[in-house]
Amino acid sequence: MNRNLITVLRELGLVVLFVITFAIIWILVPAFGSSRNMIGLLNLVSTSGLVAGSMMLCLASRDFDLSVGSNVAFCGMMVVIGTNLTHSILLGIVMALICGSIVGVFNGVLIAKLKINALIATLATMQIIRSFAYISGNGRAIGVSDEGFNVIGLTKFSFLPSPFDQVPLPIWVTLLSFIVFGFILNRTVFGRNVLAIGGNPDASRLAGVNVEWTRIAIFTIQGLMCAIAGVLSASRITSGQPGSSIGLELTVISACVLGGVSLAGGRATISGVIVGVLILGMAQNVMDLLGIQSFYQMFVLGMILLTAVLFDNILAGAYRRR
């Protein structure tokens, strides 16, 4: 097997696998192909999709963030509290965006400036921010006084042709985020620096890349995306839930790894991340339609991830031998 073929398989193999699997499921599970279920599937993955783009940058730079689930819940609480206190939805959203970004900056400083291992730093932050989420609501969910806030997550654009006029705002925001992160990764100096840092931080530093500030910027972006996801999630469930988004970090990292993002850094594609998010969401959606219990779903999702990583490792080994 020559290197060009191996490269094509690594880049496009998952996409082809997704298309084939999608077609088979479409035929075998009648309810799966309905427009209502398709919109439900996309809504299901909107939160993980929003966070996956920024997580892609973290992983590509040889870092990762375990605090994203806690940050999404915390920002969901902040937007509700901010809206209730100021009687302004806009100010509540701004408050959540600032809080999420601050968490991101804090993570970046811990890792880039203080040289704390990303695993330890974000594991600690995960616990701290989740605690803040519970403390802010005294351990309880908080409803929103302005019912207009609840409309945000349900907003649809009726001027679009059917069935796009039934697609809610979170799906459009997620799609826009994928476009933006694809542009950042492939068309900007910042994106090239991210990949360079992941490939070799020392060489990047010698080449003039400000490694520390780039890492802080990556985590700040991660925090901002968590805030956006938290706002949309809180609007969709009509309240701030301190216990929401538990396990989101594992889902997002799994989607990125499934999509070919290297945990060793230096390799990532937005198309792979999109497919990874969709595959995990599609698997969960199908199992829900078939009535498969949650503990079996955990096994299936784990096996999907393990199989994808093993397949990529086999191709990587074949590539090095050529």
Automatic annotation (TrEMBL):
Transmembrane portions of the chain: 12-32, 38-59, 66-83, 89-109, 116-135, 167-185, 213-234, 246-265, 272-292, 298-319
Coiled coil: none
InterPro entries according to UniProt: ABC_transp_permease (IPR001851)
Keywords: Cell membrane, Membrane, Transmembrane, Transmembrane helix
Domain of life (superkingdom): Bacteria
Entry's localization field: Cell membrane
Keyword RNA-binding among record annotations: no
Membrane topology value: Multi-pass membrane protein
One Pfam family hit: BPD_transp_2
Main location as per UniProt: membrane
The protein, known as: L-arabinose ABC transporter permease AraH
